[in-house]
Structures are given as structure tokens and as C-alpha cells.
Amino acid sequence: MVNENAMQSRSLLFMAVAAISLATACSSVRQTRPLAYGGEDSGSTIAPLQAVLKKRGYTPVCSAEEFCKFQQNPDVTIHFKVKGDDKVVLAIDVSKKVPENKRQALTDSAMKLGEEIFAEASITATANEKAQAEARRAEAEREAREAQNKPAAKEDKGGGFLGALSAATDVLGAVNASTSVTTTGGSSGGAGKPSAGGTSGGAQGGSGGGQTTCCINKAFYDCPSSAAVYKCSGEFMACVSKCGFGGDFKCTDACMKDHPPDPSQCTRDSSRDATCT
């Protein structure tokens, strides 16, 4: 209902303007002059034109972003009509009641006044457009910053030790899920997590007393000592654990490069590969 009323009001306004224009055309002489607008949209000058006219004491009749008109005096009416994005047409109507030899002087005076008013309104219009453009740019930059910060915020699992523990566990869990290397050791009884790049390790008791073993990519190795098991995979897992708990959750590649699993001190035993999990 509100929209219908608005449309009816707008239609009545156009009908009234059309009737006035028709009556004016029959009773006045018109001259026009195009005025260039230096901003983005000449329609943005209408609201400032209305404000300038009211400030000068006139009673304008305007339609948003389309036209504005006012009476300079009973014999002269000045119109501003939007024409495209970069132009406004200034039209001067002088009553036919004015003697013909005086009409041009009134027209020239009205043209000068219209140009002054348009120039004043254009300053406001371009300033408004610039402010709106700056606001849009600032909003776009804010959204870009928020988009950049979202991944970091998503990784944040809380502060302090519990936050670091949770994040480090996630890293090692992801490595374990994507690799198939397990390292085992006897007397030490320790267990290691898998490495990056398809390598993981852990330690478990061997079949013989005090014997230590190591599995790398489901390849079984007999190791002569706990030190050999540590070199086989323990050193790598210590690196991953240390940097993970330190807050660097993307360090597995560096650990693989600096502390790679090394079974060189152990003996390969393919017959026991099935024991590697």
C-alpha cells in the first residue's frame, strides 16, 4: 500500500509538472544551455541544487535525481534537467507578457544566476561522491583484512599450554593419518608419531630380550641399541614434538630435512615387515 501511494504521488507530481510545463510553453519563451558536470553522476546534483535554492530563499519544485525548477520572479522560471551522467540542461522561461525588447536581458540574467547556483551545487555533489567513494574503498579494505585474518583465527584453539597442546596434537594426528611409517623400540618402551613426507616412527619391544626394532614405511629393521632406534626415528619425532609444542605447527618439513629417519645402524629384515603397523 505504501509503494502504491508513493507511485500515485509520483504520478500526480509528473502530471502537475507536465501541465505547468505545457501552460508555460504557451505563455513563455524558452532558451536552454547545457551545463557540464565534472562528477560521476549528474543526478547527484539535484539534492544539492534544492538545498542551495532553499538557502537563497526560493521555493523549488524538484524530483530526486531528475530535475529542479524555481521562479526567479513572476516573469522568469529557471529549470535544471538531468541529461545523461555528465550533463544538466539549464532552461530559462521568460513570460510573453514581458515586452520582446526586454526578454533577452532577463534571459541573460537568469542564465547567469542558474550557472552560479549549479556551480555551487556541483561542489557539494562532487564532495559527496568523493566521500561515498572513500567510504566504499574503506569498507572494501576492511572486508579484505577480515578475509585475511579468518584463517589465522580459525587455527587459534585457545591460549596458554592447553591451546598449544591441542594444536600440536592436531598436527601430529594429521601426520599420522597421512603416513604409514612406524618405529618401535624395546627397553625404552617409548612410542613415536609418524613423520611428514610419507615417513612415521614409533618404538616397541622386540622379539628378543633387550632387542630393539624400528619400522619405516612398513619396512622392518633390527636395531642393536636404543641409540640406533633414536637415530632411526626418535630424533625426527623429538623435533616434531618440540616445534609443535612451541607453536610452530607446520614444521614437519623442516624436521624431515634436518632430522630425517636414519636406519643405517639397523639391519633390514623383510621377513618381519608384517609386524609393522
Automatic annotation (TrEMBL):
Basic and acidic residues compositional bias, start-end: 131-158
Region Disordered, residue ranges: 128-158, 180-204
Residues of the signal peptide: 1-25
Keywords: Signal
The protein's name: Lipoprotein
Lineage: Bacteria, Pseudomonadati, Myxococcota, Polyangia, Polyangiales
